[in-house]
Amino acid sequence: MLIVAALYHFAKLPDPALRQEPLLDLCRAQGLCGTLLLAREGINGTIAGPREGIDAVLAHIRGWPGFGGLECKESTAATPPFARMKVRLKSEIVTMGQPDVDPTAAVGSYVDARDWNELISAPDVAVIDTRNEYEVQIGTFQGAVDPGTASFRDFPAWWEENAHRFHNKRIAMFCTGGIRCEKSTNYLMSQGVKDVFHLKGGILKYLEEVPQDDSLWQGECFVFDQRVSLGHGLQQGQHLLCHACRRPLSPEDRQRPEYEEGACCHRCVDEYTEADRERFRERQRQFDRNG
């Protein structure tokens, strides 16, 4: 069984390019797969591999100045959830496009997974899902507001248009592992929102710690690897990816007449040309031949 470690940490990293190759070499030497993003604001990503390899890489990153407090959320996978190991340089480890946002300066109040239900059930609390629309579609918290954003970069504009809806409300925000909320809560505080909270460890920590019988989570949680989705207890879910548009599909979605394995689904059937779909079909045929 492989360990899958989702991690992020905001801290000043003045020399990300100098860290890139040594980190990649270590990950490969430890037999890991996954993707890590490095930027001047910190590190973000998910890696998978044997226990010893994960521990070695986490110890290496925690040895960087300012990164001793790095935490991660762990789950398991029976097979490698990534095809290869990559370490990439980025301008942001999660792209919001707001240069004044600084999670190292201030963020909302953290709420532990076991205290989350009580908070979001309060009548004066508005719960906002900060993830992208296709993620929200397969699962979210009961009563949560879906901004309907295509990317996290769209969130500030959505807030500016909708802030009036949340007058005199406390705001509770959540995302997959917590990183988007580090920026979104800092952003809301800069916009004058006083009572801002976010789920510590994100949905993954909630699904790990809160029993299904007590849960306010509905559906499954999208993850950015070949497992596609996770449920309570961080067990692999039932969703697969459409190989054309890369959106998650439920078993019911795959029974719809628009679905063609490798070529299209009901969400993208009108988004591509017939030439595109034939290219996708050829890719699927090659995949089937190679097993």
Task: Explain what the structure shows.
The chain has 291 residues and is of the alpha/beta class. It has 3 domains: 2-89, Alpha-Beta Plaits (2-Layer Sandwich), CATH 3.30.70; 109-219, 3-Layer(aba) Sandwich (Oxidized Rhodanese, domain 1); 248-290, no CATH class. Helices cover 29% and strands 23% of the residues. A 5-stranded mixed sheet has the order 4-1-3-2-5, with helices on one face. A 4-stranded parallel sheet has the order 6-10-9-7. The mean pLDDT is 96.
**Biggest sheet, in brief?**
5 strands, mixed
Spatial strand order of the main sheet: 4-1-3-2-5
Give the low-pLDDT segments: none
Q: Tell me the helix content.
A: 25-40%
- Listing every helix as H and every strand as E from the N terminus to the C terminus, the arrangement reads EHEEHEEEHEHEHEHEHEEEEEH
- Computed Rg: 20 Å
Oligomer: single chain
How many H/I helical runs? 8
- Quick one: overall form? globular
Distance between the termini: 22 Å
CATH superfamily of the largest domain: Rhodanese-like domain
* Structural class category: alpha/beta
